[in-house]
Every structure is written in structure tokens, then in C-alpha cells.
Specification:
The structure holds 2 protein chains of 2 kinds. Helices cover 43% and strands 22% of the residues of chain A. Chain A is α+β, with helices and mostly antiparallel strands. Chain A has a single domain (7-124), classed as Sufe protein. Chain: A (Alpha-Beta Complex), CATH 3.90.1010.10. The radius of gyration of chain A is 14 Å and the shape is globular. In chain B, the strands form 3 sheets. A 7-stranded mixed β-sheet of chain B has the order 2-8-7-6-5-3-4, sandwiched between helices. Chain B is globular. The chains are: A alpha+beta, B alpha/beta. The complex binds pyridoxal-5'-phosphate (PLP). Residues 69-71, 99, 101, 146, 150, 175, 177-178, 198, 209 of chain B line the site of pyridoxal-5'-phosphate.
């Protein structure tokens, strides 16, 4: 079962970006995949510019495989600076393409990053109605 | 530096085995079933190999059936014995930590109406003989318990198991794939009915295995055709493979054995010592004392096994893991769940399996890298067990 991770995947796994926690985040979530045991926490900081809510910072922690860590890392680099509306429309395909593809059996560990993003935004919106 | 610590997955072919085999590709390439001189040369070489193997294993040469792998040998034994002895009963007993080829062979038998039960193991990975005895019924056709587990290296008491199984009137199969050169396999002394081996686990070639079968017991062949291997396993003889397997086994139990076992144990114990002293929050899977000296299976709390493996792989180190993410079928190791490992801990293990080509220098390199790897991954772990 060769995984043949791409150079991009290995780079984000070995040097993950935006990894860690945010003190006093505007929202926080934890998502897990019961099948493979992967777990991801995500921290969100939002700022408002011209009445637009923008992702100021996004950080994550992971108990997961290389693919899980790498996808979350890449995703943070892609959505920081986006508006919440843009981020809500962000799809898994966008990270996957940027990573140069993922092995098919790794998809379910990796969509976790997108689930975490959607969930942390949802939590933010629920507490800021 | 490149370090191969995955010798339970497969081993590097011993060069003297390769040299022995080459002749049967280049010159003596005849079909061992042919009666001309080239066939004769192949036949004689391979029957010599069969005899040599039978002497090491202490059994009759005619009871050795060469196969393409231990997977095939196990399929043949489990399914072949069950199907040929239906009059005896339809109950099969296998340990809960068997290799998937045994587990899935038994699983297939369920479709034929067989009842399959798994014998539990303790936290140390060892079968409780009293439980085993209670589980064997009058309609139990076959009991299969491996000698050495491939993930945690624990050693079962094969001789006592054989005695219990026979006293209860059933047949006993032992998967001995991970035993060479660590155990003295002695089929007569062990008194087992069926046993399987695979050459690539002891520096022999891939694609050749064997089944020892007690021919007084009925067994239905899995592969039928031209009637090779006394009719028990058809297909053109893999003469280079068979010769290679015999050579590998002779070397494994030959002059270098004692030194290899000693060095392998020293290297394993050294890695264990360094892990225990330099990395906090670890746990050992399975009994340490009743284990072959080549195996170390360690859990690193708070980090996922596939991530550890890939990080080490990027540093030139080959190991394996039982984590769900590290497997093709996305299931965590049934061996670890069998010994009661649960929750995140089941996804946090690494198996280090040593071999005769490893060196102490390599082990220190692995320990150094491992420390960095675990530290790095723990820093951003989302699981707060550390
Ligand atoms: C305990 C055990 N049984 C059976 C097998 C299967 O052997 P083979 O690779 O020859 O099919 C293996 C190897 O993976 C093993 O470790």
C-alpha cells in the first residue's frame, strides 16, 4: 500500500504552517473521525474590516496521520485573510488540488480539516448572532 | 542513513541464497516434472532441499508441501482440513491474534456452514490454556494458534497447546512464520499436525512457503491441476524458490545463528533502554519476557502511528504501525485490540523488528531520530494524554 504522498504533502507534514493554539480565540472546535481515530482542534480569530468579517488567524492541533496534518496546514494558508462567507464556500477539492492530490484511502482523514473549518465558523456565528 | 527495522514484514535476501538460486534460472531451469536430464537436475536439487528442510524441522520429507507463500499454506490447511473432515464436526477455533490469512480463511468457512470461534489472549498476548481447553468441543475439527505473533512477537506455548488439542481429540495447526530462527522448530517434539512457513521472513526469496501436513489426516487441496507436490498442491515446481528456501533455513539455523540471536537481542534491548530513558509516556504492547528478541512494539501516547512512521521514513528509517491510518483497510490492529489496547492508544504504536543486517550504530541513529519525531509531533497533538 504505497501512499506516494506528493512533495507538497510531505512538506506541509514535516513543516506544518499555523500549527498551535490561539489565546482567547473567537471560536474553537474539536472534530474527530471515529473510523481512523484522527482528531483535529481548530482555533479561529476574526476581525472586521469595512463591515466584512475576515479570518485574521486560524490555527490547529492534530492527532492524525501525515495526510491529516498536511491538509489542515495547507488549508489554513489558503483561508487566512478570506471573509467568513468565502471560507464557508471553501471546498475540500481546493486543498486537495493545492497539495497535488491525496491517496484515495486518505481522503476521510483529510476532509477532517474542512469539517473543522466549517464547524469553527459555525461556532463563531452561533456565539456572535 | 538508511535503516531497515521492518524485518517482520520481510527481509533482505541473503546473498549466498541468491547465489544458490541463480543456477536454477540460468542453467538448471528445467521443469522438475520433466523426465529428461534438465528436469532431473531440477527435481534432484529440489528433493535435496525438501530433505534438508525436513531434517531441520524434524519431520518426514513427504509431509512437506511447498506453496507460493505462508498465506497459501494457511488457506490450504484451514480450509482443506475443515472441508475434508466435515464428518468430525463443523467447529473451528483460532486465536484472536492470528495473521489475517488465518482469520479470513476461517471467515470464509462460515459461508460453508462452519462455526468459527476466537480464542482470547491476555494483556500479555498469551493464550490461557485453561480457556483453550474449555473452548474445544467434541465437534471441533481444527485449532489454529500461531507460534510467534507478527506484530508483538509474543511466543505461545505450542507444545502444551498441541497436547491439550490432541487430548480433546482435535487437530492442531501452528503458523510458525515468525519463528525462524528464534525458536527451535521440532515438529515431532511439538507434536503438531500442521505447520506453515514462509521463506522471505528469514532472508530467503519471496513467493515460496511450505505447509507441513500430517498425511494421516484428510485434507482437500486448494489448488488442483497437474498433481505436483504429491497431489496436494499443483502448479509447476518453483525450483529456484524451493532451493533458496532450504539454503536460507540452513543458514538461519547454522553457524551464524547464535551470534545473530545475541546481537539482535542486544540491539532490541538497547533501543528499548533508550526509549524508556529518553521518551516519556510510552507503553510496551504485549509481554516483554515471552517475546522473540527481534521484536519491539511500543505505544507513544498522544501521537498517531502513521505520522510517526512517515516522519521516520523521511529520515530513512523503515518501521511499521498497527494504526488504522497506517493500514490499507483503515482498521486498527486486531492484535492490539486483542490484548486490550483501546481508544487513542491503539493508533499510537510502532513495531520495530530487527534483523541480522542491522547494526548498533543504526539503532542509535533510530533512537536519536525517534526522540525528535515524537517531540515534534507531541508539540502539536490535539490529544491531551501527555
Ligand atoms: C504470522 C504470519 N503468518 C502468515 C504470513 C503470510 O506470509 P506470506 O507473506 O508468505 O504470505 C505472515 C507474513 O506477513 C505472518 O507474519
Amino acid at each position: 500500500m504505497a501512499l506516494n504522498y506528493t512533495k507538497e504533502v510531505m512538506d506541509h507534514f514535516l513543516n506544518p504552517r499555523n500549527i498551535g493554539t490561539i489565546e482567547n480565540p473567537d471560536a474553537y472546535t474539536e472534530v474527530g473521525n471515529p473510523t481512523c481515530g484522527d482528531m483535529l482542534s481548530m482555533y479561529l480569530k476574526v476581525k472586521e474590516i469595512d463591515n466584512k468579517k475576515i479570518i485574521e488567524d486560524l490555527k490547529f492541533l492534530s492527532f492524525g496521520c501525515a495526510s491529516n496534518i498536511s491538509t489542515a496546514s495547507m488549508l489554513t494558508t489558503q483561508v487566512i485573510g478570506k471573509t467568513l462567507e468565502e471560507a464557508k464556500a471553501f471546498s475540500f477539492k481546493e486543498v486537495m488540488d493545492e497539495l497535488g492530490g491525496l491517496p484515495s484511502q486518505k481522503i476521510h482523514c483529510s476532509v477532517l480539516a474542512v469539517e473543522a473549518l466549517q464547524d469553527v465558523i459555525k461556532k463563531y456565528e452561533e456565539s456572535n448572532k | 542513513m538508511e535503516v531497515y527495522l521492518d524485518n517482520s514484514a520481510t527481509t533482505k535476501l541473503d546473498n549466498s541464497v541468491l547465489l544458490k538460486m541463480i543456477n536454477f534460472f540460468e542453467s538448471d531451469y528445467g521443469n522438475a516434472s520433466s523426465i529428461h536430464f534438465k528436469g532431473e537436475a531440477s527435481y534432484n536439487a529440489q528433493e535435496k532441499a525438501r530433505k534438508e528442510i525436513s531434517e531441520i524441522l524434524n519431520c518426514e520429507p513427504k509431509n512437506i508441501v511447498f506453496t507460493s507463500s505462508a498465506t497459501e499454506a494457511n488457506n490450504m490447511i484451514i480450509k482443506g482440513v475443515a472441508r475434508a473432515n466435515k464428518t468430525k464436526g463443523n467447529h473451528i477455533l483460532i486465536s484472536s491474534i492470528e495473521h489475517p490469512c488465518v482469520l479470513n480463511s476461517a471467515e470464509q468457512l462460515k459461508k460453508d456452514g462452519f462455526e468459527v470461534e476466537h480464542i482470547p489472549v491476555g494483556a500479555d498476548g498469551i493464550i490461557d490454556l485453561e480457556i483453550l481447553e474449555k473452548m474445544i468441543r467434541s465437534d471441533t475439527v481444527l485449532v489454529s494458534v500461531m507460534a510467534v505473533n507478527n506484530e508483538i512477537g509474543v511466543i505461545q506455548d505450542v507444545k502444551s497447546i498441541a497436547k491439550i488439542v490432541h487430548d480433546k481429540g482435535s487437530f492442531y495447526h501452528v503458523d510458525a512464520v515468525q519463528s525462524i530462527p528464534y525458536l527451535d522448530i521440532d515438529i515431532k517434539d511439538w507434536n503438531v499436525d500442521f505447520l506453515s512457513l514462509s521463506a522471505h521472513k528469514f532472508y530467503g526469496p519471496k513467493g515460496v512457503g511450505l505447509a507441513y501436513i500430517n498425511k494421516n489426516i484428510k485434507i482437500e487441496p486448494l489448488i488442483v491441476g497437474g498433481g505436483q507436490e504429491f497431489g496436494f498442491r499443483s502448479s509447476t515446481y518453483n525450483t529456484p524458490g524451493i532451493v533458496g528456501m532450504a539454503e536460507a533455513m540452513k543458514i538461519a539455523y547454522g553457524l551464524e545463528r547464535e551470534d545473530n540471536l545475541k546481537r539482535i537481542k542486544e540491539m532490541r534491548d538497547h533501543l528499548l533502554y533508550r526509549i524508556q530513558n529518553e521518551i516519556p509516556e510510552i507503553f510496551i504492547n504485549g509481554s516483554l519476557s515471552r517475546r522473540t528478541p527481534n521484536n519491539l512494539n511500543v505505544g507513544f501516547k498522544g501521537v498517531e502511528g502513521e505520522a510517526i512512521l512517515m516522519d521516520l521514513s523521511s529520515k530513512g528509517i523503515c518501521v511499521s504501525t498497527g494504526s488504522a491510518c497506517g493500514s490499507a483497510n483503515l482498521k486498527a490492529s486486531h492484535v492490539l485490540s486483542g490484548i486490550g489496547v483501546s481508544g487513542y492508544f491503539i493508533h499510537s504504536n510502532i513495531r520495530f523488528s530487527f534483523g541480522k543486517y542491522n547494526t548498533m550504530k543504526e539503532v542509535d541513529y533510530v533512537a536519536d531520530c525517534l526522540k525528535d519525531t515524537i517531540e515534534r509531533l507531541r508539540k502539536f497533538s490535539s490529544v491531551k494524554s501527555v
